[in-house]
Amino acid sequence: MTTEIEKPNTPHIIVSDLTMAYGDFVIQRDLSFTINYSDIFIIMGGSGCGKSTLLRHLIGLKSPAKGQVFYGDINFWDITPDERSRIMQKCGILYQKGALWSSMTLAENVALPLEEYSGLSHSNIKEIVSLKLALVGLAGYEEFYPSEISGGMQKRAGLARAMALDPEILFFDEPSAGLDPVSARRLDDLILELRDSLGTTVVIVTHELASIFAIGNNSVFLDAETRTMIAQGDPNRMLAETDDPKVKEFLTRGESAVERVIE
Amino acid sequence: MQAQSKIDFSHFSADTLHAAISGTWKISSKLPAPEEVLNQLATDPRIKNIIINASDLKGWDTTFLTFINAISKECQKENIRFEIQELPKGAKRLLRIASAVSEQKDAYQKRKRKSFLYMVGDSAVVFGTSIVDMVSFIGEASQAVVRFFFGKARFRRIDFLIYIEDCGAQSLPIVTLISLLVGLILAFVGAVQLKMFGAQIYVANLVAIAMVREMGALMTGIIMAGRIGAAYAAQLGTMQVNEEIDALNTMGISPMDFLVLPRLFALALMMPLLTLYSDLLGILGGAIVGVGMMDITPMQYFTQTQASLDMTNISLGIAKGGIYGIIIALAGCLRGMQSGRSAAAVGEATTAAVVTAIVHIIITDGIFAVLCDALGI
Fold it and tell me: Do A96 and B238 make contact, defined as CB atoms within 8 angstroms?
């Protein structure tokens, strides 16, 4: 029955009643949403609303103040750290600034997870590394150190590393921040392609409207003022159907608000 | 030449203050302060309206807006009607944008001053948790070492070799310099005292015992705390800032195995060797003073040194060196891993690493002294 589960429209990650806090300071409360298999799920909201913090809860870097995160039917924060890290091995994460290991070359960065978990031979790994780097447009940069390439390239190399083990779930923290429009567009295409060809579930933290509408098929909108989610669902439908002025303002790039200012 | 910026006041009626603004209002020109207007209010409490006329304004930048803003805020507080006539269109738009997002009232509250008692209690709690953190870090590191010897923990061999080079070969020049000087100093201090008894030859004993038992390991430890402990903290702290440690964690690679173990092993391995080297250089320094200034022949000095030392002294010093190495590596890695995510936090971590290492080295040395005394070593 396992193949049955991996079809679209069955839950992959379920967040239920989640409250996130730093000490007494509550960032977001009462978050409940479901990410299905092969979704491209967008976590959006204004700056400082807790998008990245939510991501840290999903990838096991910060434990919830209240509520649960389920991977399939496993309660993610109820299991041992070892079991958690076994789940995380099936996930790839692209950090905001790439987070490449600065003491290693790009090839070594991408190779490390493969050496750690795949059990493949050295030459096999080398070929996979070249392919992954080529997929993100960095063919030939194998021997460069992260500090020797531009920020956008670091980010793409970070994606190559995140994709190293062909993860079931890819997490992106602000993938297009710091990329030029063409690279950002190419990244969007790559994300779509990964989803379509490998069935990868993708979770993206972003406020890049172009990406949100182009690739997202499910989303949650976090509000900094009320400290909870105020909308969820397909972003395109959200734009068409929402009555909430804050959601509308965000999704229209605040056009109504600017008009108010200028008169 | 810029037109002089100034305000002219006129009272058309008792409750209305008219102010005509003229000239260039830019950051480079000498500007009237908002107080000039506000003082008028203070001297005449009957004023209920302020009308500013900006028709003669020649040029402006945001300093002009600050001026207007200051007056408008004060007027709001005092319930006085404030009106600006002939304000340039651009200025009007900017003022509106500045007031578009209302002030975040609770943003200030976060910075509220804490009471003295609160701060005392807070630092007590912080001290308690820091001890717990330190102990659990040592525990985790020990577990990692055990995992390594069972072949379960792995790190890159190249990393380990680089750290060995860094701790070992690269540290030789500074260890040479300091140890030689410490040997010289010890010999000088001893010579003055021993000359009084005509027992200059015992300078060799003094330098040899002091270097081998204490100063060799201690000086090397302090040098390495500054050189390597600080570097470890800065490296790991920066990795924390760049989310590199998060990336390891989420990939299921233990930072303890991958980052701390090679550093720990490298330093624990190199410190005894450096200590031995430092002992030798210290004795050499003593010999320079003894032979050069106190008419002891090199052969005499050598035999005297040889007679005064035994294996116990030497191995005690080397053991101390190894333990100091472990302390320095753990302190550096602990502070680095604890580092916050800003440039300032990395700096603090580096300082804390050096302080922690040196304090613990001295404490350990004290414990050693007491133990050796009790055991008669």
Answer: no
Q: Which two tokens stand for residue B113?
A: 């001053």
Sheet with A74-75: list strands edge to edge: A25-36, A11-22, A66-71, A74-75
Average pLDDT for residues B59-71, to the nearest whole number?
A: 84
Query: Which of A99, A116, A260 lies at the smallest CB-CB distance from B243?
Result: A99
**Which residues on A lie below 8 Å from B253 (Cβ)?**
112-113, 116
CATH 3.40.50.700 is right for the domain spanning A2-90+170-176+201-262: no
Question: Across the interface, which of A95, A103, A262 has its CB nearest the CB of B247?
Answer: A95
> In chain B, what residues touch A85 (CB-CB under 8 Å)?
249, 252
At the fourth CATH level, which superfamily is domain B6-109? Answer: STAS domain (3.30.750.24)
Residue-range domain boundaries for chain A: 2-90+170-176+201-262
Convert the pLDDT of each residue in B88-105 to its tens digit: 888 888 888 887 776 666
pLDDT for residue B56 is more than 90: no
In the Cβ-directed half-sphere of B158, how many Cα atoms lie within 13 Å?
Answer: 4
- pLDDT over 60 (residue B84): yes
- pLDDT of A1 over the 50 cut: no
Burial of B185 from C-beta contacts in 10 A (0-12 / 13-18 / 19+): middle
Cβ neighbours of B246 in A, within 8 Å: 61, 95, 99
Strands A91-94 and A40-45: unpaired
Q: Where are the alpha helices (DSSP H) in B170-243?
A: 172-195, 203-209, 216-224, 230-241
Tell me, yes or no, if B371 comes closer than 8 A to chain A by beta carbon: no
CA-nearest residue of chain B to A163?
A: B251
Instruction: Indicate the domain borders of chain B.
Output: 6-109, 148-375
Name which of B100-109, B120-129, B362-371 the model is least confident about.
Answer: B100-109
Which residues of chain B does A93 touch, with a Cβ-Cβ cutoff of 8 Å? 247, 250
